[in-house]
Design brief:
The structure is a homodimer.
Chain A (H helix, E strand, L loop, with lengths): L2 E6 L3 E7 L5 E8 L5 H18 L9 E5 L2 E2 L6 E4 L4 E4 L1 H6 L7 E5 H12 L8 E6 L3 E7 L2 E2 L31 H4 L1 H14 L4 H6 L8 H9 L3 H25 L3 E5 L7 H14 L7 E4 L6 H13 L1
Parallel strand pairs in A: 1-4, 4-8, 9-12, 12-13
Antiparallel strand pairs in A: 1-2, 2-3, 5-6, 6-7, 9-10, 10-11
Helix pairs in contact in A: 3-10, 5-7, 5-8, 7-8, 8-9
Chain lengths: 314, 314
């Protein structure tokens, strides 16, 4: 049995044919073009049929699942807002269903799909309760409850990046203040690195960037901290403390078996995870808690999570 | 069919016989004595048998459920810590089971039981996903997921009062800083009222208390705010803003159908709930969210939630 999994991003659409073991047996990518839902659906269908021709062993697919970087309505049918795709109120599930009239089509948010992929063959294998937190330009994530993808109690889903971390604190892109995203995103680490660079002309942050803000990003701050710059280390330590506090909120409401952290910041590896676990241990009300681990599905999370949507809907 | 529900508190043990409609058909209360689990279990059994004699229509009970103000182990059998009861590592389920060898006995945390009672015939009727937040000396609560009491992903349960609200902020009783409890408990409102009283000798807080800290509690601050004292109103507004931010964290991870607020602070009624809902609307990432309502089960929540444990375990 094979399923198609599709991961639509702002620059490319990744398409995969996925087998029972959740392996991607054939894949391709086409550029994303901002041409509206119907045309995007037609391009996807064309590409899937091309893949099927290339793989004659696969006679047919049993379902099509697609994940998008945006909010989905309660019926899991309409993309309410996906800014990178120019999709606003787009009935994308129906548009894709029109291309595949005889098999079921599913739609989900990409972070929810990524959490599902971790459940399928990643960090959440065998879990009933788990949370994925992705640290990128923003902070997203997905929640597994009862061994299934959780789409929110009223169907709105989770917005882990907009849980409160420092009420009244740093401005967030959402218009609120003090959200997790305003402290734990890669953008927040970059922001604090730039501030520290200006405040500390003696720092490596300043020497290595030549005072040029555009040269500073999250990786730059982490690299300076790794190389022993005290100023960058202070910025990074504060970042880790905030991330630990964000995890603590998740631990104290869901007590998950696993929290997985994904996104670019994770490339810091144990330089991040070791102090993060210590910070969580220190702040935790319980004497123990679930594991804190890196997400493992990486770039394939979208395709695999999308392919799993059919089973998750059962 | 009848069940016994028992709510053990630091001063009294409330016992009720509960029918199919979750009505307490007969009840009593006996003083709590700090005499250890076995003797407490024997006292409870004696009282239940007394109640059964008083109600000859009830031939037998089908289960015994008990809730305690403390942490329960993952097997729902041992009271790890219930400071008010002097119970530390007490195998209370087995001790009570020894008194009722032929029927099942269940044990839970009292806030979890209260959430279950709201599900049975209170604010959560018909809900799949709901959260109870109780604002008292501390902040507790319980989580309903999938239409059942949720005992945490690893069995540790929820500690909603120790989610992060202002990372690095006010000291909390748990040793951490900036917990929800450090801002949203009745104790926090009292603390901020006392501070404001000292800082503002011109305020009603000072005039009405005569500068006596011991006269100030949460209700006192709320009453002064209701009577129009600007200083007390500022303290109360900050309290409501923090409570809204705490609810926002819950909304953005679980998107519950209902959040119910219980505890003494709720007696403020719409003076609390109207600005609370506005604050949540303003901070919410979604354009809508579940209802924010007062808890309704009050003093009976413990007995009824305890009686419901048998069904919840099915």
């Amino acid at each position: 049995m094979y399923r198609a999994g599709i991961d639509i991003g702002g620059t490319s659409i990744k398409i995969g044919l996925v087998d029972d073991k959740l392996e991607i047996v054939r894949r391709s990518a086409i550029p994303f073009q901002c041409v509206g839902g119907e045309k995007v659906a037609a391009m996807i269908a064309e590409e899937i049929h091309k893949l099927l021709k290339q793989e004659p062993a696969i006679e047919s697919i049993e379902s099509v699942g697609v994940v998008v970087p945006g909010s989905i309505d309660k019926t899991q049918s309409i993309v309410i807002d996906a800014h990178n795709l120019g999709f606003h109120g787009v009935p994308f599930r129906a548009q894709l269903q029109a291309q595949f009239p005889s098999i079921p089509v599913y739609l989900a948010n990409d972070a929810d799909g990524a959490a599902l992929a971790e459940l399928g063959r990643g960090a959440f294998e065998g879990c009933k309760t788990a949370v994925l937190l992705t640290l990128g330009t923003g902070v997203g994530g997905g929640v597994i409850l009862g061994g299934r993808m959780f789409s929110g109690g009223t169907g709105l889903g989770a917005e882990l990046g907009h849980m409160t971390l420092v009420n009244g604190g740093e401005a967030c892109t959402c218009g609120n203040h003090g959200c997790v995203e305003a402290y734990c995103s890669a953008s927040a680490l970059k922001r604090d690195g730039i501030r520290a660079m200006h405040a500390h002309p003696e720092s490596m942050l300043c020497a290595k960037s030549g005072g040029d803000e555009s040269k500073i990003d999250a990786k730059f701050v982490i690299d300076c901290a790794k190389e022993g710059d005290a100023v960058a280390k202070t910025v990074f330590d504060a970042y880790v403390d905030h991330l630990a506090a964000a995890c603590i909120s998740i631990v104290h409401i869901l007590d998950p078996e696993v929290i997985a952290i994904g996104g670019g910041v994770c490339h810091a590896g144990e330089f991040l995870f070791e102090p993060l676990r210590k910070g969580i241990d220190k702040k935790c009300f319980f004497s123990e808690h679930g594991a804190i681990v890196p997400a493992v599905m990486g770039n394939d999370a979208g395709i695999i999570g999308a392919a799993m949507l059919a089973d998750n809907a059962k």
